[in-house]
Amino acid sequence: MTETAEAEAVIAAVERVADRIEAEKSHLTDLDSAIGDADHGANLHRGFQAAAEKVRDLEDPDAQEVVKTVGVTLVSEVGGAAGPLYGGSIMSASSEFAEGVTAATTVAFAEAYLEKLQDRGDARVGDKTMVDAVTPAVHTYKKSIEQDDLPPVAALAKAVDAARRGVEFTVPLRASKGRASYLGWRSVGHQDPGATSTLMILEELLAAAEERFDAEPDVDAVSPTVPDETPDGEGN
Amino acid sequence: MVSLLVVSHSADAARGIRDIAGEMGGADAEIVAVGGDPDGGIGTSVPAIQEALSGMDGDEVVVLVDLGSAVMNAEMAVETADKEVVIADAPVLEGTLNAAVEAANPKASLESVRESAEEARDVSKL
User: Is B9 known to be catalytic?
Assistant: First the structure.
């Protein structure tokens, strides 16, 4: 793809995400009112609307600039923890697209995003946060590309499936990070809003990629919900 | 001169804490309050914290924060600040009071003000 076509594809994906978050605004806020401060839907909606607008207004951008602009805008507009977590991680990982969007650079982006997210939020798998969706998605995506040699769209479909199971995995957990951690046991039985919005965004990225490459999703039920190893590498 | 920035989810709470600290011995310290999300609701905002930091007279600032996302948003703002800024790991009200008393001391340093704030973690009320 040329630089312009790539940037256009990324902008189209951002617009898709913004539309999805708009449609799910009250769903996310309902989830957040159970274990948080009931502003996740409104905050993300404000952020992604602004991001979609900003990237549409860019003059002759490349993919990296589009992605970075999304991050910067989310940091400024979202407020709450989702601003620095989503926006800061996107901003920081956007440099992986300096040479354009390829299978390899998307893996690098995903890994850089996860690393920054864990660093900023100091959360690990099992803390009942967006990390529970991002971690299996990133590990599955990387494995599907690098080990199983799947095309990126098929790898992304597997990653979305892994994220979906990660979201379900948050329901029985007791939160140990974020506002929900103040609720202690009362957080058990509720689905994490940040993990849920992460899944929604990944679903839209997949839909955008399928549309772009006119591919059919190819998912079977083998992607892991959690990585094979604990993040500190001690195994399980 | 070491200055203090109070960051709370509520602009009212931040101002209230600033006012209390100003009365309780920190009258000579520069204390700035910032709070609220980009819509003015409950939350914190990176640009608002950045703006507060850059508008302060002091070139060394200790930041006092309330809960989770205030910490993250303050961290992001600190990363782009063009002055020396540290975040104190302290309860926001008691920490600000302690820090304000120390900041009014002419011999105060960035570290001594931060330490004073953090000493408030161990204060028992009963």
Answer: yes
